[in-house]
Amino acid sequence: MRAVIAIDAGGTSTRAVLVDQHGRRLGSGRAAGGNPTSAGPAEAVAAVISAIEQALRPAGTDPGAVETVLVAHAGGHDDYQPGIERGLAALGVRAPVQRAGDVAALFASGTHERRGTALIAGTGAIGGVIRDGGIARTVDGTGWLLGDAGSGFWIGHLVARAVVDDLDGGPSTALTPALLDALGLGPVAPADGAGVLDGRPAVLGALLRRLYALRPVQLSRFAPLAFGLAGRDPLADEVLHGAVAALAALLGRLRRIEGEGPLVVGGSVLVEGVLPLGPAFTAPLLEAAGDAVPVPVADGLVGAAVLALRSQGVEVGERLFAVLAAEVRGAEQPR
């Protein structure tokens, strides 16, 4: 029996699935974040190996039958793949380890086609042109300091700026009590001057200290505050319209490079945040998509399995893709 292990190593969770050449799921596992950039190489390796060990656990699964292990993730570290290889050896898996980018895996999670475009907006934002099943070109994904426009970080950063500006005498926004509550800080000081420290509201000083204690990318945790106030707060709407415009510009650039094939979209900001907002917000994004109807996917696990099978010479056409997608997406359900 031919079998492959596919892993989607995300920033918050890692999922692994063991499938055979017919697309049947033989085992699955889940662990903590396996992205080496966000979790650190040692922690990321431990998460990947834990998820794989769970996938191999079902009775009758022979580690020696695994022909390849494919890990889909963003970023990288010199110790990442060697660490995974050592962990696999301890489990009795002698198969080679391959790595794939998150954009290619996401695209292959949404379609069996081998040409098209993919757009991801989660903590960061990146788009990719796919040709012959692999990455031909990426756009953005340049990180919080220089890019990632429209991402969770980008939105969360603007939320924090709007709240700081409100507390510093600028336009008021419902984002302020929402952010203060999220951080466990007290209410805004009354206008009579109570609660002033060093010439500014004490709560503003406390907020600044709390925000500057975070790593910059951690500002992405505040993006849901804007989505929660969509249509009810002018500044939240301004932030969200700006994010959609930035993502539409990114997508437009992608579709100018590659105007054929399906468009697969993923990431919590896009799938859980932007798309549910409806046409009042999403019109620029849909216009940039042109004739392509966005295909939303939750993660890159199906695509990692597709890429793993293809690496072993298995042709993943429409029928096998449908079986594989159903099996892998059913990994959360007990057998």
Structure write-up:
With 335 residues, the chain is an alpha/beta fold. The protein folds into two domains: 3-95 and 300-332, ATPase, nucleotide binding domain (Nucleotidyltransferase, domain 5, 2-Layer Sandwich); 115-297, Nucleotidyltransferase, domain 5. Helices cover 44% and strands 20% of the residues. The protein has 13 helices and twelve strands. The chain has helices spanning 36-39, 41-56, 80-91, 102-110, 152-167, 175-182, 202-212, 223-228, 234-257, 268-274, 279-289, 301-311, 318-329, and strands spanning 3-9, 13-20, 25-32, 66-73, 97-101, 116-121, 125-131, 134-140, 196-197, 200-201, 263-266, 294-296. The strands form three sheets. A five-stranded mixed beta sheet has the order 3-2-1-4-5, sandwiched between helices. Helix 2 packs parallel to helix 3, helix 5 (152-167) packs antiparallel against helix 9 (234-257) and helix 9 runs parallel beside helix 11. The protein starts with a strand and ends in a 6-residue tail after the last helix. The relative contact order is 0.16. The mean pLDDT is 91.
